[in-house]
Amino acid sequence: MGKIKLKGLSCTELAELLLSWGEARYRADQIYTWAFRHLVRSYAEMTNLPAGLRARLEEETVLEAAAIVRREFSPATGTVKLLFSLLDGQAVEGVLMRYRSWFSACISSQAGCRMGCRFCASTLGGLARNLEAAEMVEQVVALEREARRAGGRVRSVVLMGTGEPLDNYDNVLRFIHLIAQPQGLGIGYRRIALSTCGLVPGIRRLAREGLPLTLSVSLHAPNDELRGRLMPINRRYPLSELLPACREYSEETGRRVTFEYALIAGVNDSLKQARELAKLLQGLTAHVNLIPLNPAVEGKLKRPEPGRVAAFAAVLRARGIPTTVRRELGTDISAACGQLRHQVLREEGTLW
Ligand code: SAH
What is the residue extent of each domain of the chain? Predict the structure, then answer.
């Protein structure tokens, strides 16, 4: 058994641990303040704790669940990408994106992925393992340090890095509750977005949690035939099951579902497909986010010309579907879709 990861404990759980050590409950608040407000990186810096307690924390727990092994910064957009090494040597990526005066942290929920989407680099080596809640919290903490260094704060967190969050449901939910704690990072549920390739039972379960999370569903095709070719998960959960689950989610939570649609030249970007998509989403409280494909996977898949993206968007809007085109913030530093992890895997044969 490894040591307890401090960032995987809620403030209440930490207090219980400390009580079991014969310490006072308020020490948990002090430790939380150091870890999540001051973002210190060692127990030695927690100067209002008695030396004995610091020593015991050192002995039985770890403060940091991951170490940064690579940092890339894009001066053009302010995007920072961090590659983390976890305690067992697995690697994951987290990205900080800047939107005017605030920041969004994009984090990974699994090391690798087993969903097999054809266009996605995260899935190329399969799934190594699920991330623990502490390992997801650590990514947000490190990105919050980056945001502060740039004079801001992380205001929203998106689970859009490597991995399928609903394939790691319990740890992801635990993570969400941990970062929402007011004594911790205090990221409100509405500012947390979870993106899924469409695991229907997970969407239904999430709908029943009663949390106002933002749900994004990666759609990428307007019919089962094409979606099944691009995303193997569609053969298990076709659109006739996925869309009712999305409807249920917005009815239960009152939140509008976002549909992600990566435009791939000559594959899913025709105006006919735009009309088909509009028809499919008719009557749903939905919003479409178009993403010009990141050519992440070697091969034939390419992004369309900008004019084609605009025309696709115009068809949707004309049919009353709110549509945005994603601003790209990380292409220049391969800060998208598992690319850095994949690149390192390729260059070094293995990840540490
Ligand atoms: N597994 C989750 C979250 C991770 S991916 C999901 O599937 O939603 C985050 C988003 O990036 C998804 O919408 C995914 O389909 C998209 N994506 C993956 N590879 C991409 C690429 N090469 N270009 C553009 N978007 C991509």
Answer: 4-62, 66-348
